[in-house]
Design brief:
Layout (H helix, E strand, L loop, with lengths): L1 H20 L14 E8 L8 E11 L7 H8 L10 E14 L16 E13 L3 E12 L5 H11 L15 E15 L8 E13 L2 E14 L26 E17 H4 L15 E13 L2 E10 L10 E11 L1
Antiparallel strand pairs: 1-2, 1-12, 2-3, 3-4, 4-5, 5-6, 6-7, 7-8, 8-9, 9-10, 10-11, 11-12
């Protein structure tokens, strides 16, 4: 059955890619006057595990170009790194939820050397400034970590839905604490060689980091893409930390698709989901790794104004006693309207 589904999936993808290769190159330029709604779901079910970063979900709305709150326009105009004469300005609002668990969720008293249970519920405000090749992102996340984040409720309901064993150690989760993250990132894309069938390539580099009591880190990475209508975005939406775009999507052709792969490395000074609460005594690990890397690969396909993307992520161990690397998948649906 798995072989049949895999073959069917490759056949559908090949058909879509073939059709994209024959799409009209005379299609209109990307319509920056459209906003974007996106829904992103990340889960380690795709990696065959149920541990560490086990689930994340995010719903976001990004505004059309230059349709932002006046205060953001005023502030961006005074940032020396932004040239608004050549960059479009957008704003995004999002609601996100993430769940973290130890390796063994069947015991009532979790292993004190393993990652603690934690939920993270937060709102995001994002400012995005971009032109054809450069995208700057400033994102502020505000929310709560702890029982009020409803991590136990969400995981219990999900496991009941898929008929899996209920986790038993949520009584030992991180305590309630307000959380804040300020994330900044710049990504620059460069055109690569054009190939037969209208295929285009590009590659990009990014640098950035986060500051806050939830996470503090500095990161950099690179990504390469091959396909059609690469100018429609800077990569599919993801839940940070991640090598990704910022939820923008402006299709220039009715049908487009691309494959992508990338590497991301972070130097982590703080991670509440491993280091524990900042202001209260709580479970924590004693051997967190300061260097963490992600290897990712995936595909994005859009038909008219709807994009569907899948990303597979291999994340190195975040602490020394971790039972192997983390593997999870991310599925996103974006609609330009």
């Amino acid at each position: 059955m798995r072989g049949f589904l895999r073959s069917a999936g490759f056949s559908v993808l090949a058909f879509l890619l073939g059709q994209a290769g024959h799409a009209q190159e005379t299609a209109a330029e990307p319509d920056n006057n459209r906003g974007v709604w996106s829904l992103t779901s990340e889960n380690d079910l795709f990696g065959g595990t149920d541990r560490n970063y086990t689930n994340g979900i995010r719903i976001e709305r990004v505004s059309p170009a230059n349709k932002v709150f006046p205060v953001l326009d005023w502030a961006a105009d005074r940032l020396p790194i932004l040239d608004l004469d050549r960059r479009d300005l957008r704003q995004g609002l999002a609601l996100s939820h993430a769940i973290f668990t130890p390796s063994d969720i069947t015991t009532q008293i979790p292993d004190p050397d393993d990652r603690p249970y934690a939920g993270w519920l937060y709102f995001s405000g994002t400012v995005v400034a971009s032109d054809d090749h450069v995208q700057d992102v400033l994102q502020v996340n505000l929310g709560v970590v702890g029982p009020s984040a409803l991590g136990e409720f969400v995981q219990d309901e999900w496991h009941a839905l898929i008929d899996e064993e209920q986790p038993k150690g949520w009584d030992y989760q991180l305590r309630d604490e307000p959380g804040i993250e300020i994330i900044a990132q710049r990504m620059a894309l460069f055109d690569g060689p054009e190939l037969p069938l209208g295929l285009k390539t590009d590659f990009g580099f990014y640098g950035g980091g986060a500051l806050g009591n939830v996470r503090t880190y500095a990161g950099t990475g690179l990504v390469g893409r091959i396909g059609w209508d690469l100018g429609s975005d800077f990569g599919p939406p993801r839940i940070r930390p991640a090598l990704s775009g910022a939820g923008t999507f402006s299709p220039g052709q009715e049908l487009g698709a691309y494959l992508f792969a990338g590497l991301d490395g972070r130097f982590v000074l703080r991670d509440m989901f491993l280091d524990g609460n900042a202001f209260r005594d709580s479970p924590r690990v004693a051997d967190r790794n300061k260097l963490v890397g992600d290897l990712q690969a995936g595909v994005a396909v859009h038909v008219q104004n709807v994009q569907l993307a899948f990303t597979y992520v291999h994340r190195t161990e975040e602490f020394q006693r971790q039972a192997g690397p983390q593997r999870f998948g991310a599925v996103s649906v974006s609609v330009a309207y």
